[in-house]
Amino acid sequence: MNTAFQHQTVSRAAVRYTGVAIVLHWAIALMILSMIPMGWWMVRALKKPETQQLAYQLFQIHKSIGFAILALTVLRIVWRATHKPPALPSGMKLWERFLANATHIAFYGLMLILPLTGWIYVSSGWAIATDRPLDVATSWFGLFPIPHLPGLEGNRSLAFGAMGAHSYMAYGGAVLIALHVAAALKHQFIERDGVLAQMVPFLRAGKAAHGTSGKGKTSGLSHGFGLALVVMAAAIGWVLHLPPPLAEQPSSVEAQAEPTTTTPQSPASASQANPAQTDVQTAPVQAATAPVWVIDMASSSIGFGGTHAGNAFNGRFEEWSGDIRFDPANLPGSKAVILVKTASARTGDATQEGSLKNGEWLNSTRFPEAKFETTEFRALGGDRYEAKGTLSIKNKPLPVVLPFTLKMEGNKAQVDGALELDRAALNLGMFSDPSAEWVSKTISVKIAVSATKSDS
Ligand code: HEM
């Protein structure tokens, strides 16, 4: 596709676009050509269980290429504004100039607005396929996160409108590409005026002289027409895709941080959480008289794992602290309180890390800390123990039992424990993924603590 605004009066018409303009043209063209079938396929593949996982992975690639197109388009506009392109061949008819100019400006409009509508859509944190909140962070080819546009989270109408515009512009763009390619081929093989050679370095320039005209009376009009086409496609897509009113769902992802009566929760998870909570509230609080242990953070860790889109993931919390008082001979006087910074969850995958902090998962902005507080220690024989306690994530207490082994040598101790958590009982991701289509219901937690007994 040629550069827009290109057919202006030039005093000395260049024969070719500059190398940078040619590279940008073909890079963007190839990316757009891949994006349209990719977008088409992934939207459909998402609905079938056998292709869902691949579709999910493609989403990240689609978003990454889309952002590359956006960045390169901005670069291309800057380049175009500062470099004169070759003029149109002098023999072109008025209507041909009009159409050429309109098509080119429409391409610029599409290359900017199409990725922007994609960005708006993902920033809304709402999946139109399931009509539910689904906040997926964007990681640019897994290298760095790209933030959501602010203030759009949980906006359902915006999600539907933006994706309607996105899809109309994308398929409208396919029609435009077909016209553009047809015009280029006509120039090459029928007119033989060398227009294609301006963008394809190895083609020989044609017979026709390049004119100096092109701006003239029709230029403003054709640019207006080209832009109007894009805006019209976006507006029609937006309006036709507006969703029907939603009766009983909360309006934002944030609302899902707290379980509500409308939150889908399996009967099993509900019955698991409630009676147990009562137990914990009535459990006697013990006085901690056992010696204090200082955690060696460098050789201690709190890890977690599960599956995501069919693949295993493992992560750890980078920031946490613990107040441990423990004596195997004085279990009633032993106590541990562990505080974990929820924003410090790391899995090595920027998308997962971004999503973990979000509203319906750990909601780190509102609930920066998770807490595990023991209520009772029990000796199980040998070096085996268990700690009963309360795990509070997003201020929701859940009773848990942590079995662990204890190895003591002098004033050093090594504790290794593991437990499995049902994320439904902790209200993690229960609105967007209640049936564990993406993320396993069971999350395993592993704790390794090295500590030294304090003298004090
Ligand atoms: C020029 C760049 C782009 C092109 C040509 C393009 C093209 C497409 C197409 C053809 C679809 C399928 C629409 C349908 O059948 O309903 C699609 C869907 C999608 N696009 Fe893009 N896209 C571009 C940029 C972006 C960007 C930058 C993002 C995000 C940052 C994005 C996010 C998405 C998402 C999330 C969907 C699936 C929506 C759903 O859940 O159904 N796209 N895109």
From TrEMBL:
One Pfam family named in its UniProt record: YceI
One GO term of the biological process aspect: respiratory electron transport chain
Main location: membrane
Keyword Zinc-finger found: no
Listed GO CC annotations: plasma membrane
Coiled-coil boundaries: none
Stretches that traverse the bilayer: 20-41, 61-79, 99-122, 168-185, 224-242
Name of the protein in its database record: Hydrogenase
Organism: Agrobacterium vitis
